[in-house]
């Protein structure tokens, strides 16, 4: 089955990625914004839609007004629910459409999702996946630009 969506526990990933938004508190808008920005680049590279879930109804992510329709979806839990609750519900609802990848370091959450047929990744493994995908994208862009420069130079 094809991977139809990546579901991410946002704070779990932020706590495992200290290099991202260095100096910013892990629950700050700056840290969430940096995470969403890099996830947007990863989504562009891999082509799989991403939803990132954050605990807490008091925290809000201010989306830019001109944000593209294909951007990373950001959801916050309401009072009385957790990001894990939202991830479980989304994983269950998407399973009819294909494979879902859930990214979290919460072992209970990973066991529950994998028990229902979903795929899971630890935050460390997912960070490596992002790093690899973005490095490959950068290399492809450099190769493309080099070949275009060479083609342009020959046509003169």
How would you explain this protein's 3D organization?
The chain has 156 residues and is an alpha/beta fold. It has a single domain, classed as 5'-nuclease (Rossmann fold), CATH 3.40.50.1010. It is 49% helix and 15% strand. It has a 5-stranded parallel sheet with strand order 3-2-1-4-5, with helices on both faces. The longest helix has 32 residues. The termini are far apart.
Instruction: Name the average pLDDT.
Output: 87
Radius of gyration equals 18 Å
Number of distinct beta strands: 5
- What percentage of residues falls in helices of 4 or more residues? 40-55%
Q: Which short descriptors sum up this protein?
A:
156 residues, alpha/beta, Rossmann fold, five-stranded parallel sheet, 5 helices
Characterize this entry briefly.
The protein has helices spanning 10-15, 29-46, 83-94, 107-115, 123-154, and strands spanning 3-9, 50-54, 73-76, 99-103, 119-121. The chain has 156 residues and is α/β, with parallel strands linked by helices. The protein has one domain (3-126): 5'-nuclease (Rossmann fold, 3-Layer(aba) Sandwich), CATH 3.40.50.
Helix and strand topology:
Blueprint (H helix, E strand, L loop, with lengths): L2 E7 H6 L13 H18 L3 E5 L18 E4 L6 H12 L4 E5 L3 H9 L3 E3 L1 H32 L2
